[in-house]
Amino acid sequence: MKSFTLLAALLLSTPLWAGSDDLTATGDLGLVVERGTGSLVLIDRSDRAAVARIEGLGDLSHASLTYSPDERFAYVFGRDGGLTKVDLLERKIVARTVQAGNSIGGAISDDGRLVAVSNYEPGGVKVFDAGTLDLVADIPAAGKTIGLVDVPGRRFAWTIWDTGEVFLGDFSGAEPKVTLLGNAGKNPFDAVLTDDAHTYLIGLFGEKGVTAFDLWDAAPQPVKFLTEYGKTGEDMPVYKMPHLQGWAFTEGQYALPAVGRHELLWVDRDSQETVATTQMHGQPVFVIAQPASPFVWVNFATPLNDTVQVVDSRSHEVVATLTPGKAILHMEFAPRGAEVWLSARDDNKVLIYDTHTREKLGEIAAEAPSGIFFTARAHQTGL
Amino acid sequence: MKSFTLLAALLLSTPLWAGSDDLTATGDLGLVVERGTGSLVLIDRSDRAAVARIEGLGDLSHASLTYSPDERFAYVFGRDGGLTKVDLLERKIVARTVQAGNSIGGAISDDGRLVAVSNYEPGGVKVFDAGTLDLVADIPAAGKTIGLVDVPGRRFAWTIWDTGEVFLGDFSGAEPKVTLLGNAGKNPFDAVLTDDAHTYLIGLFGEKGVTAFDLWDAAPQPVKFLTEYGKTGEDMPVYKMPHLQGWAFTEGQYALPAVGRHELLWVDRDSQETVATTQMHGQPVFVIAQPASPFVWVNFATPLNDTVQVVDSRSHEVVATLTPGKAILHMEFAPRGAEVWLSARDDNKVLIYDTHTREKLGEIAAEAPSGIFFTARAHQTGL
Question: ipTM of the assembly?
Fold first, then answer.
């Protein structure tokens, strides 16, 4: 009843946003995924305001998106296999294709020409022209594709859940050149590229450990480490698989969520040894570095997802515990770190916090918000 | 005679750019400083094209600029003390103040509200409202201000050439709070902030060495290192002081230009020990990391400034030597590293190179170009 009341209030409210301006700079725009309604809220970071809603994107549960280099277009990867191109200036969908039965993410090439989508059903990678969404390459796989990332030089890397195979695809020539880099191990569940595009890290579910490939090397080899890392037994249910894209890289360390435990693990980036463990409020989901600071922010799996904690990467101690709202699903920082935007799904709000005072600056109404994506992501490798 | 012919050809040519579009995304725009004519060329990175010229900015020799968080406005710091606000969408100057006799640079606060300018004549820092360019704070100094950088939390750090004093100014409250952090040493000539806002590094001219302050610390203390670093004697003229803003941070190292020598120095970021020296073509000026790669690109002081070299940060060896044009003054990378744009002052051209093939992709006419600044800088701390 309560959620119905909230929903009705939202639907009856006056428009959330002002009229369109002919001249809009795109550097401080962003999109919030409304997971239940297949829509996006276009947000203005400077004004801390919603400026438009864009509808008709299909199933956006677990959706992600990426931006064109000019920040004009977003490519939205829906759970229903939909790839939707949205124009942030026209505030509308300009192209949409349902390209598979079940997709889980994608990436855009470093030159902005190609968009790659990783698929579960059928498995594999499809590559599209970023301008037209015409299919330009279809790379089948022997299973579900996970951990698709962009690699400099119009390349992408990805991994297969069922087989553990890790591929590097080079799309800079007339024909795609796909290379099998090696085997990561049993049932890789997600992968991430470090921000310098140096190391492709793959988390394993079917066995303990993390596998790394050095993508700066001409012939990358799998290196397994953190062999104590992984699921710790049947008595500890895993409420939600953590996102490796939320691994924080700070102070020469990886900060990563322990699978199924109320812990954060700190790994030295050079030695790959565990240097510290931080006891946390719940099972970490995203662990994200506050830009230009020593801090990482952590959110948690259900049922403890009303809380966010801040940890100092030098002392490995929790320095703040916030309870901003109900079901905090995602956190997105202003690119220079002054603010963090949090989606509170069950409050139907996006909350804006000052990262220095850790006090609330404002909020924006949104329908069951999940992912928040600022356009500055257009300029970051591996996102 | 030759330069006159080139100039005449430029002036007589048909317009360099197409008409304005009502809808322009700003993520792939940039500005090129035309140092001799007090003008800027607005460039479109995706189209590899000039789209407008903006004139009337005064003395732009040694000019730099910074962007508002939405990427709509540039704040241009001229050598004549002029602070000019340029609207990239309207393609015109919207505000200009001559705020000192001789300024050398500036920065914008992390929240985009304040613009600070570092001045030589008279020395000190002036802080302006980013919207109106109204003066909001005037911090005098006992000498010339160098190395002004933005620090998270609406703060700026700067250093005084004459006294060696290092200040941190906090402008987050009703009144500015300026703290003397300590003394860097004799005649600091430039300073730079690491991209994580952790370490403020100050190069010395009056004595050998570099001084570091840990800005994550509540009470930062000066730590001197690289005490063999600096001018090496009267027999080796220093043709141009290197820019510390061009220090590259890669692979856990600082790559820095030797003052007055044909060398690049590699310093371990943790131990602050020199780990390698690379013999170079000339006296390095800018040493800039190619994003998401192991490479740094280096340009050189006159008279050897027709050459650019690429060095691998793992082997510390020169892997490519290019001679792209006459008087290469600056290098700017596409934010994900796919291209590098070079200003060839005496060719009156900006040259665009593919960083992977290291071949030329295109060029743009510009009048004696110096600095090139892409809007993605809006999202980077310390630039």
Answer: 0.91
